[in-house]
Amino acid sequence: MLSTINLQSWRVSRTPGRTVIGKCERKESMVQRVAIIGAGASGLASIKCCLDEGLEPTCFEQSDDIGGLWRFTEAGRISVYRSVITNTSKEMMCFSDFPFPEDFPNYMNHSRLLEYFRMYAECFSLLRYIRFKTTVHSVRKRPDFSTTGQWDVFTETDGTVESAVFDAVMVCSGHYAEPHLPLDSFPGIENRFRGQYLHSWEYKDSARFQGKRVLVLGVGNSGGDIAVEISRVAAQASIIFQVFLSTRSGTWVISRISDHGFPLDMMLTTRFHNCLENFLPSALMRRLRLKKFNTWFDHANYGLIPQKSPNLSLIVNDELPSCILCGAVVVKPNVEEFMESSAVFEDGTVEENIDMVVFATGYSFSFPFLEESVRNICRSNYALYKYIFPPPLEKPTLAVLGLIELTGSIMAGTELQARWATRVFKGLNQLPPASRLMAEVAKKQQHLIKQSE
Questions:
Q1: Structural domains in the chain?
Q2: 271-279 and 282-293 helices, crossing angle to 10°
Q3: CA–CA dist 414, 423 (Å, integer)
Q4: CB-based contact 239:213 (threshold 8 Å)
Q5: Which residues are CB-contacts of 142 (< 8 A; sequence separation ≥ 6)?
Q6: Which of 67, 91, 375, 431 is placed for a possible disulfide with 370 were both Cys, Cβ 3.0 to 4.6 Å?
């Protein structure tokens, strides 16, 4: 197992009125109250960063435990499925001041990652700042917001509604708030198809798919994992092909394992590769990617080569190519329409006797607790300055964390977001004028439109 750094060298000591990190000391200003919504990975990092800056955090968590999406449950809320394994290695996904234990595997299941979150929370005494079984119903600007930047936060715990005033708010409710179920894009699924259909958030294990012919819509990480897992239990006696994986535009498939058995992300997510991305012509970088991605297998032969955004569509799956090669999973194009027991695909082919359809079509984020004017600003992560701050607000006291798509771990990214946001709240970092914020957001949106063309 690969070695990790010594945790003891990162301890932070505290005395009233000051923070000492190593030999550096700074004076703290008056404590500010910060509301943190959600106790998942970004919520825990936000509590820690608030404490590091001398702020007073209060975290509201709707469930009875930490971990967010990574806390597996049988039903009732969105969570990972039973067999899920991390796509990033422990060396690349840990919080900067808390490495994973030596005996943890490089890639972990949800239970190991949740154990890590518990260790992190215990080490830095974060649980005392979390109010469990508490729902945030409303976050509204106070009448004097333009001068104070303060918020009224209304919560409910065991039927009791309370309100409190906070100097800042950190929204850490995550990117996976609402399942995206595009039924309108699949004619016949609601009024003709007699089988069952469900979204991937309802998928917990393969037990209910025993002996079924299943169609999985979407070839993201969840779609690939679910198709592989169901293929092990689907009917195999009288029908050769049991699981069909429908993709609208294809994807690159990579393995977790790189040369000499090292985790792939440790070898690719480096400063050297980042320099290549920045300095080499985009056309050359695209050719290099194509060569690298096709080293394992030729995606064109497997019906997976991306038709759109060839540089961006990527999943991690060690078993999918093998399942396709041996016929356990059959790749199909996008579905044109559903009949009573069959699916008609855009290439004209038809697959009969489909029992179940799994929509692995992703999620959308939403913030129903924010007042409408602020919610409209946060309608897209691309509408936020640096994916964090809503530009038009008079005071930068609202930060949205976790709405980012990274090459590496989301945990490392949200920790950096939390560090910056808390320093902005504290007044140690200043944001540019609102006009500049809006201009940069507009520039980013235009760049996104060009990329999608």
A1: 7-177+365-452 (3.50.50.60), 184-248+318-359 (3.50.50.60)
A2: 130
A3: 14
A4: yes
A5: 148, 150, 151, 152, 165
A6: 375
Inter-CA distances, 97 with 27, 173, 259, 410, 411, Å:
22, 23, 28, 16, 12
Helix (H) or strand (E) holding 330: strand 329-332
The two structure tokens encoding residue 118: 């518990």
**Percent of the residues in the chain that have a pLDDT greater than 90, as a whole number:** 62
Buried b (16+ CB within 10 A) or exposed e, 152-191: bbebbeeeeeeeeebbbbbbbbbbbeebebeeeebebbee
Which contiguous run of DSSP H or E holds residue 375?
A: helix 372-377
Between 9 and 381, whose confidence is greater?
A: 381
- Residues 92/95/101/103 CA torsion (nearest 10 deg): -30
Q: Tell me the pLDDT tens digit for each residue of 177-206.
A: 788 999 999 999 999 999 999 999 999 999
- Beta strands 343-345 and 335-338, pairing class: antiparallel
Angle at 132 between CA 176 and CA 401, to 5 degrees: 35
Q: How far apart are CA 272 and CA 265, in angstroms?
A: 13
Of 178, 364, 363, 345, nearest to 245 by C-alpha is 345
Q: Measured in Å, how far apart are the chain's first and last C-alpha atoms?
A: 44
Percent of the chain with pLDDT over 70: 89
Q: Tokens 């290099």 belong to which residue?
A: 288
Convert the pLDDT of each residue in 222-244 to its tens digit.
Answer: 999 999 999 998 755 445 558 99
Region of 54 on the Ramachandran plot (φ > 0 left; ψ -120 to 50 alpha; else beta): left
| 8 A C-beta contact, residue 418 and residue 42 | yes
DSSP 8-state symbol, 432:
P
Distance CA 213, CA 351 (A): 10
